[in-house]
Amino acid sequence: MIPPPARTDYAGGCHCGRVRFQVEAADRLEVLDCNCSICRMTGFLHLIVPAARFRLLSGDDALVEYRFNSGAARHLFCARCGIKSFYVPRSHPEGISVNARCLEGIDLAALRVIPFDDNDREAAMRGIARLADA
Asked: What's the pTM value of the predicted model, to 2 decimals?
């Protein structure tokens, strides 16, 4: 039996600090770079984790929601600074997608970045299905 990957607790939040969270993820982070309109425009790098590995520490009262297109994704922004540090993705509605750029002490150059082609969503979804259990 293969042992599960080693995990680390990461802290993060929005720009103004009102929204704070903790996420448990692999020691070596693997993130998705989606080319859909909202991700491309905001530079969001997706670290998708099961909801049980995400904990909102503060700022629930500061979050505002935005939905578009299918309405499945719950985009959550800090009402004060406008940063979307995490949200509930359409691809994994039972999970959380954290913006790796909002994690403290992360070396972005050390991340394994995987392209997610929203123009071929079916193939892209097959490629990331394993993240539901990561």
From this structure: 0.84
